[in-house]
Amino acid sequence: MDRKMLDHSYHRSRVDAQMGGGIAFILLMLALSFLVGDKFKLFQQGAENWTSTLLVWDTNTKSWMPVHATTISDWESGTGKPILTKEIHPRSFSLVVVLGSLVAAYFLYACARRQARLMRSVYDEDDSSAPYDRQWGELRVTFWGMFIVLLGTLFLFVM
């Protein structure tokens, strides 16, 4: 192997690694959305911006409602049933997770774009010994597809 082929192979392996990293990141976010997504409810009615919110299950409306001081006493005195509660993180935590995920996805995209440019620059365009590679436009479609899947995962995460 000559120097050009080694450089080309190295940059191509980096592009493949960024694609694999993007897929692994999306799978991690998908797993987190199923495991701890119920604690990150950005659009929950009554959620606070900077402090955690305690929610109680309302059997009348069949939904989680924010707890108020009078709410617990009303439920405790009215029935003898146990009260189902859960705590959700502040909206600011949810925004940090969503924005951090989008920044991480853009970072992977920018790294792959740079590596693809370096991969394509090793050989001249009219060099007949250059191996076939997909153009950046074709690679970009893959990253945009992964970005759309990430957006769906984040939507699942905060809903």
Description:
The chain has 159 residues and is mainly alpha-helical. 61% of the residues lie in helices and 9% in strands. The protein has 4 helices and 3 strands. The chain has a 3-stranded antiparallel β-sheet, with no helix packed on it. Strand 1 (53-58) and strand 2 form a beta hairpin. Helix 1 (3-35) packs antiparallel against helix 3 and helix 3 runs antiparallel to helix 4 (136-158). 20% of the residues are buried.
Helix percent reads 55-70%
- Spatial sequence of strands, sheet with the most strands: 2-1-3
Shape: rod-shaped
- Work out the radius of gyration: 24 Å
Order of helices and strands: HEEHEHH
What proportion strand?
5-15%
Alpha-carbon distance between the termini?
52 Å
Structural class of the secondary structure composition?
Answer: mainly alpha
Total strands: 3
Main sheet makeup: 3 strands, antiparallel
Mean pLDDT: 82
| Number of DSSP helical runs | 4
- The low-pLDDT segments are none
How do the strands and helices of this protein lay out in sequence?
Elements lengths: L2 H33 L17 E6 L4 E4 L2 H10 L6 E4 L2 H31 L14 H23 L1
Antiparallel strand pairs: 1-2, 1-3
Helix pairs in contact: 1-3, 1-4, 3-4
